Amino acid sequence: MARLFIILAFFSICGCTSRTALSVNSAERFFLALPSGTAEYEVSLGDYLLMEQTIIREKSFRITQDVHSQIPGSLGFPFNFHLKAGNLIPTVKFGEGTLFRAAKGNFSADHSLLGSVATDEDEIGVISDKLGNPVKWYVDNARYNGVARGDAHWERAIKPEELLWVEPMVIESTERGSPYRYIQLLSVSWPIIKMKYSENWEGKTDEAVLEANGEDPEIVVKGFKFRVRKASSSLLKVERLR
Question: Mean of the per-residue pLDDT values for the chain?
Answer without folding.
Answer: 85
